[in-house]
Amino acid sequence: ITATSKTTCPLQSLKQRFVQQAPLLVNFAQRQIATTATRQITISNLGGLPLTGSVSLSGSSTFSFTGGSFTLAAGETQAVTVTFSPQTAGVFDAALTVSSNDSDESQTDVALTGTGVAQLSGPGTRVASLVKATLRVGNVIDTGNAAAVDAFIADLRAILAQLLGISADRVRILSVTEGSTIVQFQIATQGTQTAEPTAAEAMASLAAALAETSTDEFSDLGGTESFADETADVVLQPVDASGEPILGWFTFGSAGTQVGFDDFFLFADHFGVADSDPSFEAIYDIAPADEPNGIVDFDDFFRFADDFGKQVANGQEIIDIRE
């Protein structure tokens, strides 16, 4: 949303500039129940006069926002963060209304829509095992002390790397809670270190080592108080920086996190194949996304072309859990 000054009235119309900078419809697409997705809408004042106003929301309570009022001098911007958090399955709609002191068009509405689902499915989704656990040790650290937290994490990674025969950088710390320190961590996939055990094998070795109580592997961290293997299958949807689904990332990280020529060559190999053919693979039948037609055709090609060159914003997260 932008505004520019003109000689005959305080502010120029918002709407034309708004359409150029942000869509009048923000589609959050499929989101798993009890998860949260966010998007940002930017309000900009490109003119020489102050732009003041407010933002309001109507419709489904699954949507919320921050950044409710604004006073922008010439050239200033303000981001409005919109959040979608479905708690049940279904399609949800709302409207974000931006009101301002624009004398030509004082109100602009942005339609919001999103779908809550029990589990993500369809083109582009990936199912993998997230290998993670929660460990409680006797050390007491101040989580407000960054140096102490960093030292604890480094010690934990070193112990796990030596114990499990994996690279320390495969231990991803998800959270650290003070008291008798509780740490939730993830073991990433092998990556290029193919001689190392898989994430699942490493977690099984850790569980076995902790079950053997004659030696406490974490005595240097105050001793083990509890351990829980929380490995679970998860479904992830590759998305771009704005949260829109990416359906054409077929290499799943083997060629990086950008949709590129390796993805194109895979797609080309499957072009023209129908579901009656034994070589048919549904991951290439990406259009229409809500009702694939059982053949890899030009609709799928044009949808792939839309994704070509995009970076997968959550690509590293997906790579970290694939085996």
Structure description:
By secondary structure, this protein is of the alpha+beta class. Helix content is 20%, strand content 33%. It has helices at residues 15-21, 146-164, 199-211, 261-270, 298-307, 315-321; strands at residues 25-32, 37-44, 51-59, 63-66, 69-72, 77-84, 90-100, 107-117, 126-130, 132-141, 171-177, 179-187, 224-229, 232-236. The strands form 4 sheets. Strands 1-8-7-3-5 form a 5-stranded mixed beta sheet, with no helix packed on it. It is globular, with a radius of gyration of 25 Å.
- Classification by helices and strands: alpha+beta
Helix content: 10-25%
The H/E string reads HEEEEEEEEEEHEEHEEHHH
- The strand order across the widest sheet is 1-8-7-3-5
Dominant shape: globular
The profile of the biggest β sheet is:
5 strands, mixed
Q: Ends: how far apart?
A: 44 Å
The share of residues in extended strands comes to 25-35%
Number of helices: 6
Arithmetic mean of pLDDT? 83
Brief summary of the model shown:
This protein is 20% helix and 33% strand. The chain is an alpha+beta fold.
Note the topology.
Blueprint: H1 15-21, E1 25-32, E2 37-44, E3 51-59, E4 63-66, E5 69-72, E6 77-84, E7 90-100, E8 107-117, E9 126-130, E10 132-141, H2 146-164, E11 171-177, E12 179-187, H3 199-211, E13 224-229, E14 232-236, H4 261-270, H5 298-307, H6 315-321
Parallel strand pairs: 1-8
Antiparallel strand pairs: 2-6, 3-5, 3-7, 4-6, 7-8, 9-14, 10-12, 10-13, 11-12
